């Protein structure tokens, strides 16, 4: 691809990460190499790249890491609407079945040999860049995986335990700087993702932007209120503002949604 492949290398051990990055940068097919030391850092990097319009084409991912391990992270990545290729880079053979189930592009054992890494890069390049023809998430028949019907759930930390909040559980999302707060009927969760990136991910799950600070599940809107030129909606008992430029689009969406056969 023009400019080379954009890749993310993830490993919690600095020497292993440095070696992997050195080998990746030595390959002429690689354009940009991002790095992360854990699963949470990897998600932040992917979110930034997506928000900037430069999605990562492939993630070279260690498996045994603290917090969000590689297989769990791989399952999350595999559900992205613009799924990157996943290449596991690990010292352990026993996770090959997990890699197969996730439909990873390749599985490399440490220590990484340059020729083995070159073969994995060839597979990534041959199957296409993220979101492009033949890429994961592209329509069936293009050589990659078809898009999944449900957008990916969001990992959240609760008392040191990672759980996943599905889009169907969320009433609305509130922007808080570079973070977003997911509001559900039972509480709220702060996640490390900009609202714009989450809007892109969850659009197919029926979420619409109603304000620069709010993303709302269309099916969860209880009322649309117009009063003296001011528009608000009621979602889960909470009144939220609708910016003027979103009013017409939201009204049209609600009308179309109401007319759908049940």
Automatic annotation (TrEMBL):
Q: Which residues form the HTH LytTR-type domain?
A: 154-256
Which UniProt keywords are given for this protein, alphabetically ordered? DNA-binding, Phosphoprotein
Question: Which residues does the annotated region (Disordered) include?
Answer: 128-154
Q: Name one GO molecular function term.
A: DNA binding
Chain ranges of the Response regulatory domain: 6-125
Q: Can you name this protein? A: LytTR family DNA-binding domain-containing protein
| Listed SMART domains | LytTR, REC
Ranges of Gly residues compositional bias? 129-145
Q: Name one Pfam family in it.
A: Response_reg
Q: Which residues carry this modification: 4-aspartylphosphate?
A: 62
């Amino acid at each position: 691809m023009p400019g080379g492949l954009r890749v993310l290398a993830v490993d919690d051990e600095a020497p292993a990460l440095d070696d992997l990055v050195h080998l990746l940068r030595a390959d002429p097919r690689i354009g940009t190499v991002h790095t992360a030391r854990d699963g949470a850092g990897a998600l932040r990097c992917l979110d930034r790249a997506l928000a900037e319009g430069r999605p990562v084409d492939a993630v070279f991912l260690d498996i045994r890491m603290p917090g969000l391990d590689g297989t769990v992270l791989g399952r999350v990545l595999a559900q992205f609407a613009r799924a990157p290729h996943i290449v596991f880079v690990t010292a352990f053979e026993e996770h090959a079945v997990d890699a197969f189930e996730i439909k990873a592009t390749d599985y490399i054992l440490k220590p990484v040999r340059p020729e083995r890494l070159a073969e994995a890069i060839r597979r990534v390049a041959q199957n296409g860049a993220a979101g492009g023809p033949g890429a994961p998430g592209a329509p069936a028949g293009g050589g990659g995986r078809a898009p999944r019907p449900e957008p990916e759930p969001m990992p959240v930390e609760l008392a040191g335990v990672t759980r996943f909040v599905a889009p169907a559980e969320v009433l609305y999302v509130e922007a808080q700087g570079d973070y977003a707060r997911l509001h559900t009927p039972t509480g709220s969760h702060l996640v490390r993702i900009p609202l714009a990136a989450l809007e892109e991910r969850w659009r197919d799950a029926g979420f619409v932007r109603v304000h620069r600070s709010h993303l709302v599940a269309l099916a969860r809107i209880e009322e649309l209120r117009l009063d003296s030129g001011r528009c608000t909606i009621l979602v889960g008992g909470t009144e939220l503002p609708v910016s003027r430029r979103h009013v017409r689009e939201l009204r049209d969406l609600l009308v179309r949604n109401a007319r759908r056969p049940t």
